[in-house]
Write a structure and sequence with these properties.
single chain, Nucleoside Triphosphate Pyrophosphohydrolase, 7-stranded mixed β-sheet, about 20% helix, mutator protein, 8-oxo-GDP phosphatase activity, Mutator_MutT, 8-oxo-7,8-dihydroguanosine triphosphate pyrophosphatase activity
Length: about 130
């Protein structure tokens, strides 16, 4: 089974978190995810996330601390997610790899149809930010 290392960003702005929706024609079309992507050989996770946010959203981001790591086994591959806090420093979101985006309040995140690998991130965000 293929093992893929990917990054994801938790981007917070005015108490809301950015969620992006995959194109309907993708294998997991219509599902929501935290933006990010595959780590290329020789690339650090932070450099990957900066590159992916530039490519996918047309923004320059500052990558902060590692928020969590999670692994999910899909039928055809295993995805290891390295999730970082991030902030948009320059640019306005232009979607290049998604069909939609939403800024969601933390307690609203559970309303979206997330990719299976992203659900643990939603759960941790809600427990870390709501309970404390």
């Amino acid at each position: 089974m293929q093992h893929i290392r990917v990054t994801a960003a938790i981007i917070v702005d005015n108490g809301r978190i950015l969620a992006t929706q995959r194109h309907d024609h993708d294998a997991t079309g219509g599902k929501w995810e935290f933006p990010g992507g595959k780590i290329e050989p020789g690339e650090t996770p932070e450099a990957c996330l900066r590159r992916e946010l530039r490519e996918e959203l047309d923004v320059d981001a500052e990558i902060g601390e590692l928020f969590m790591e999670t692994t999910h086994a899909y039928p055809s591959k295993t995805v290891e997610l390295l999730v970082y806090r991030a902030a948009i420093r320059a640019g306005t979101i232009v979607l290049h790899a998604h069909q939609a985006h939403r800024w969601m309040m933390i307690d609203e995140l559970g309303q979206l149809d997330w990719l299976a690998a992203d659900w643990p991130i939603v759960t941790k965000i809600q427990s870390d930010f709501i309970e404390h």
